[in-house]
Amino acid sequence: MRVIGHVPNERSATVFSDYLVVQGIANQVESDSDGWAIWIHSEDELGRSREMLDRFLVNPGDPVYQQQAAHAESIRHQRRQEAEAGEQRHFHRRRLFGDVAGWGAVPLTAGLIGACVVVGALTGLGRKMEWLQYLLLSIHPRGLPEIARGEVWRLVTPVLVHFGFLHLAFNMLWLFDLGSMIERRLGMWRLARMILVLGMVSNVGQYMVSGPLFGGMSGVVYGLLGYVWMKGRFDPGSGLFLHPQTVAMMLIWFVVCLTGWLGNIANTAHAVGLVLGIAWGYVSSRRSPSFGG
Q1: pTM to 2 decimals?
Q2: Domains (ranges, CATH) in the chain?
Q3: Average pLDDT of 216-225?
């Protein structure tokens, strides 16, 4: 967080804070020796917020500022509800297997989970090469000759392959959580496009670094994480939201995987997916009518 300036009293601080909230800028106010400090959460909003504060200090009695309180409280209430919903998603993962009736609203997410489970069974969770050879990006260390022959499905099918039960279970938990949120809010076809792009780009990135023997939905999952993270920060009207604890846990897990403590992990796919998802979410937010700018 960064301080953008000070106002002389608590009343002015509250009015300006409400105005910032309505403009989509998360903030808080604190009393200090110079008056009431205005803190904003995102450094990306630093310049814009300071310009707003300069205009406010010139004419704090302008009705445009005084009329924002009710709208700001409504936005804060909505964010509290979203935070509570995010916490429930985080702590109640049993819904993945318990709320089967709700899967009809997210057919693509449910279908992908089913496909990963079936592929896991057929491949012995990555042990049966007679099946893996048709699903990996390639069986050759360079050149992608199968793709050149027209086997273009290989650009995506590595996301269905998982090596071990925990690898499959954790990826499916996150796919259900993030995929179903996006599918409900943005629709099946938008999610399908995201999964195809994230899957292909992260798979090719991993192949270029480590060769062909890799798999998993992790690159897609980290891409979805980055997308929803940015949409929640910069386009709250999208209805996409992540609890800060969820973001922190996923980023900590990302770093732990980089250490090598957990064995051979497709870290390049994680990184490529996360960066692409963040960029996609941010650009999408900039194009949204609810983006302040």
Answers
A1: 0.64
A2: 2-67 (3.30.70.2350), 86-287 (1.20.1540.10)
A3: 93
